[in-house]
Every structure is written in C-alpha cells, then in structure tokens.
Write a structure and sequence with these properties.
2 copies of one chain form a homodimer. By secondary structure, chain A is an alpha+beta fold. Chain A has 2 domains: 84 residues, Arc Repressor Mutant, subunit A, CATH 1.10.10; 43 residues, Ferric-uptake regulator, C-terminal dimerisarion domain (Dna Ligase, domain 1, 2-Layer Sandwich), CATH 3.30.1490.190. The first copy, chain A, contains 5 helices and 6 strands. In chain A, a hairpin with a 7-residue loop joins β2 and β3. Chain A is flat. Chains A and B meet through β4, α5 and β6 of A and β4, α5 and β6 of B. β6 of chain A pairs antiparallel with β6 of chain B, so a sheet runs across the interface. Chain A binds a DNA duplex through α2 and α4.
Amino acid sequence: MRKENEILNDYLRQKGLKQTSQRNVILETFLASGGHISADELQEMIRKKNPRIGFSTVYRSLRLFTECGIAREVNFGDGRARFERGFDKTQHGHLVCTSCGKTEEFTVAAIQKTIKHISEKYDYKPDGHRFEVYGICKKCR
Amino acid sequence: MRKENEILNDYLRQKGLKQTSQRNVILETFLASGGHISADELQEMIRKKNPRIGFSTVYRSLRLFTECGIAREVNFGDGRARFERGFDKTQHGHLVCTSCGKTEEFTVAAIQKTIKHISEKYDYKPDGHRFEVYGICKKCR
DNA sequence: CTGTGTGCAAAACCTTTGCACGAGC
DNA sequence: GCTCGTGCAAAGGTTTTGCACACAG
C-alpha cells in the first residue's frame, strides 16, 4: 500500500508546491486520529505538538489532503465538516446514533453496484458518495 | 395520504404549541417549493407573500417541521442546510454534479434493503438516511 | 391572563481571505 | 532570489439566541 506521505509529496511536486514541517505534522496527526475528525478537533490535537500552527493552516492542509485524495470530507449534520482517510477505496457508509452521536462504519458491496447503476442511468461520471444511516443505538434505548 | 398541515397541527397540539399565521405561510411556501431549498431561499420566497416574517422564524419553523417529520435536512456540501419534504417515505438518494451543482433524485429499492440489513446487524433502530452520489454530469464534460 | 411566538439585532459558529513576514527550492 | 506557505486578525456566510412586545389558547 502506498503511504500517504508519498502521495502528498508527489502531489506537491507535481503542482510546484512545497513540503513544510507544518504539513508533515498535520498529516501525521490526521492519520493518527481515529477518523471523522473536524478541523477544530484536529487543531486541538496539533496544538499539543506545535502550538504555533494556526487554524488557517489546518484548514488549508485539509483542503490539500482532500484534493490529493488522502482525505475525504464527510458530514454528520452537526454543522461542521469532518474528515476521514480517503485513500481507503472500500466503499463504506456511516451509521450515526442521533441520540449519543456515536458513529460506526459499515461496508456493503451493494453500495458499489448501486452507484454504478445510478451513474450509468443518469450519465454522470461518479466521483464519490456519502451514505449515512441515522438511528438510535442499542445503549440509547 | 395525510396532509402536512394536519401532521403539524397534531404535533403542535400534542406539545402545547400554537398555530400561527407565520407557521402556515412558511409551511405552505415550503411545500410549494420544489424541494432541496435552503433557509434563505425559502425566506426569499416568503418575503413576497409576507415581508415581515424574519429569518429566525423561518429557521425555527424549519426545525419544527423537521422534528415532526414534515421536512428532512439534506446536505450537498455547499455549506448550508437544505430541506426537502420528509414525509415522503420513498427511499431515495441524490445525484449531485460537483461541477454545476445540479441535483437529481433517484430511487433504488436496494437502499431500503441495505438499511434494514445494516441496522439489524449493528442493532440500531433506523430513523432516516442520506445517500448522495457525487459526479460530473453529461453537460459538464 | 399565561405562556408561547415573533422580529430585530446581536452573537455565535465555522470557514475563508488579505496581508506582511518567513521558509522551501 | 523568487515563489509559495504561514500566522494573525479580520471578514464572510450561515445559524442561533436574547429580549421586548404581540398574539394564540
């Protein structure tokens, strides 16, 4: 499996952008996080390693990671963007508890088939998806 | 089919809330809109009928409609919430063009099966879903 | 009458942007 | 050196909230 930092560096080189220590720290921290992390949560984690990194840099890096496919934006309806590792090609969805906010990932082969079918029918070139199922988890009942 | 205003009025009565002319106008306008409408677009439509209705009332009403199941919040990644009729039990998804923003609805029976399967497996009581497929539409290629 | 709803403006919130300085190549 | 990146603060956009008054039940 190709490492994320290689993907990033190739992308930077190709676009004439530069490697910086900030980008390294942010990527590292993002990968170490469990996933489904918001910009401010990531910022909070980063603050511990390097308190001088600003919000803008975190946001800009997340956009960069999204552009090169390392990250993917997801949205759980809490009013802010969340990010997860995007290079993982497994088509998955999220099961979100509307009571306690707990989130689980699930994988279903059926999603891939559905996406293929739909995008052919409407003549779209598919480029990602989001599938979120909301419910109440066992504990919250 | 049970009318939305009946659903709303029952909900209001049950919660000890009140019927108001504003809520009527907002509901009417929301239903007349094509769907996938944002709060400010709805406000804009409402302004023509009754220019004195404020933003807060529109937001508060949309939350109310969402609570009683008349509306459903959807999110197309443009940074603001959009609302569609929620009592329509047809399980559908959205196909969003990431280039021009055009949105189409599609229906697939497979989604229902998938949701049922997943929520049983993880022991969640399902309560809604979002399924968005992103791509580039025919025109934008 | 009592408590809820409304409109306004201000606040809160997340995200983006302008700018001067700093750092990679 | 030239260009891109960064941090800060300020601006941008959407949504929520506090408050005094209005209105439904």
